[in-house]
Amino acid sequence: MDITILGIESSCDDTSAAVIRGRRLLSNVIASQEVHRQYGGVIPELASRAHQQNIIPVVDRAVREAGIGMSDLDGIAFTRGPGLLGSLLVGVSFAKGLALSLDVPMMEINHLQGHICSHFIDLPDRDLPHPRFPFLCLLVSGGHSQIVLVKDYLDMEI
Questions:
Q1: Contact residues for 140 (Cβ-Cβ < 8 A; gap 6+)
Q2: Are strands 4-9 and 75-81 parallel, antiparallel or unpaired?
């Protein structure tokens, strides 16, 4: 039986939520923050405030688009870091409250490992090819660009 996970991402300036059952992506909702455009870069305090405004509607929409109810969730995953502290706190706090209210486990996810492991997700309408271990991954994520030797799902070397 496949488990159903709600993933919450709030490490920088996008508030995102996705629902995954097994390896299959059921929904993926992103709220981008236009407030930073006028400054030419991300302003941490503005990002945190925007996450607070966006997180409830983004999570609600992700669950609805997945065609499930909150009671169908087996767990909640959230970005633990790296990222902007205030932005991460919004996601962590929301995930904790929701997990406690649903009595489901929480899983903290390293933002960069999450990017790498996304290679193993299938789309709603089709399976995708997945890399075989070991493989090299060029990770480009803001200030965290790196080349990673991926030996297994959680065994990685920069």
A1: none
A2: parallel
Reading the block at residue 91, the tokens are: 């996601």
pLDDT less than 70: residues of the chain: none
Those residues whose C-beta lies under 8 Å from the C-beta of residue 88, and which sit 6 or more positions away, are 10, 11, 79, 80, 81
Helices 44-66, 85-102: axis angle to 10 degrees equals 30
Q: Which residue has the tokens 């492991």?
A: 117
State pTM to two decimals: 0.92
* CB of 112 closer than 8 Å to CB of 105: no
Distance from C-alpha of 32 to C-alpha of 39, rounded to nearest angstrom: 15
CA atoms within 13 A on the CB side of 157: 5
